Amino acid sequence: MTRPPATPDPDPHAVAAAARALGAGQLVILPTETVYGLAADAANPDAVAAIFEAKGRPRFNPLIAHVADLAAARRIAVLDDRAEQLAAAFWPGPLTLVLPVREGAGVCDLARAGLDTVAVRVPAHPVIRAVLQAFGGAVAAPSANRSGRPSPTTLADAVSETGAAAALALNGGACDVGVESTVVGLLEGPPQWLRAGGLERARIEALIGPLAEAGADARRTPGRLVAHYAPDAPVRINASAARPGEVYLSFGTGPETASDRLSLSETGDVREAAQRLFRLLRAADRRAPTAIAVAPIPDTGLGEAINDRLSRAAGKVG
Ligand code: TXA
Ligand code: MG
What we know:
This protein is an alpha/beta fold.
């Protein structure tokens, strides 16, 4: 018996229906390689307003415009040499570039929270790629969670978060990367590190040199003002063991004392831990623990994104 592919091939009927729904101003849940997104036509302010409504998202926090390919990215944004280099190396993939916007070119003001910049990404998942190709325009899509909650990495989690607002939800299996895209700002001055995510910092710096920390400029880093990624139970990070009543998320071969233990990665692989992170936070939550204790995670590679999400979930940042 052959194993089914981890990522199902896009069903052409579902893809066509999704493109039609987007064109009609409806919301659609779509899988990406990072997390599931709640998508709308980026040019349609009413549809984009419905995203903010469904997520309970503050309107000062702009959305990412997803496009089918580099040519489509060039139609909505201005790419300098650094942007072209990163796009050539990492698109399609888990990298979002914040760039000067081309006004009136398909991403409405509300999607950008009124900024003169636009966040652009070419996702790698075959289902959203097929929908973007069929639809033709840019698609605004934040993670499909309600604002402040962990991002969904399965169809079921996405539907339970924002399914009520969506006309349609497309299945793409469990997300491969598991944390959101890395966000880099390429505006005037040095490249800016805006969000750790699915593409490791070192791979970006190897290409365009050191990234500047974003600092506290709210105009450039609006997402940093928002509390994030929190399950219902409190989160305790860098925990070497569980206390009574806690669920423990272990990394590597941790202490065997915890009776209620979920493993982020038995082998201590940060990539696997990223893939499982949000799903296990949700699974831990369902056990209604006094807290979710999480083992220390090394800050290397995707560990940087994991630690960013965990410290925000624990209320230590933002
Ligand atoms: O992997 C991902 O990026 C997923 C999937 C669905 O593509 N999307 C996602 O979107 O994580 P969201 O809305 O949850 O996060 C977008 C981040 C926010 O932190 C937002 O503040 C930032 O990108 N952002 C969007 N536009 C921006 C802009 N013009 N300037 C600075 N930051 C921006
Ligand atoms: Mg999000």
